[in-house]
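name: query_chain
kind: protein
chains: 1
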Amino acid sequence: MMIFKNILTNILSGLYTGFFESLLLAFFFMFFYLTAKKEGGFKVAIQGLFTKFKASKDLRRVFYFVFYLFMILSRTILGRSLWINPLNNVIGTWSLHDVDGNIFTEGVENLILFIPLMYLYFVMKQNQSFSFFALIKKSVKISFLFSLGIEFTQLFLKLGSFQLSDLVYNTLGGLIGGLIYALFHAKYFKKESDPS
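structure:
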């Protein structure tokens, strides 16, 4: 009976942890399937996608942003296994060492992960102009809300632990990403005195 219980637990855990990733992939496959059916087959749809991808800078920008977004989701939610207690360390770790004195770089990693995310977000939105302060505000708001969504998803699905330090590091990384965009793409800013 114990063997049966272990097998059943392992199967259900495996199905549970892969559920959302599978659902997401199935959704995108069905979207592609319907598009391919409408276009006249997979080959035609793929050729059309590559043609549009080569011709459109905007489409490539969206692709880079979405690709990086899914990399973050894979690291934070989709690629995680079940966690017994997602509230075991709500405050999180704020230094480069954990309580046992071991090097702990997760905070720095979280910060670094969000820098390209916000930079790519604004590259994707280059056709819109922002004032400097609007860009900073948007950087903080988007990175905070996205990070909060990740943390609550980890909490409710038990796929990691909810930590305030992650929220702060991710938001700070998003702010830095927005500042880097501001530094290198100042020509896309509208003037503060602009009435529009």
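note: Residues 22 and 28 are 10 Å apart (CA to CA).
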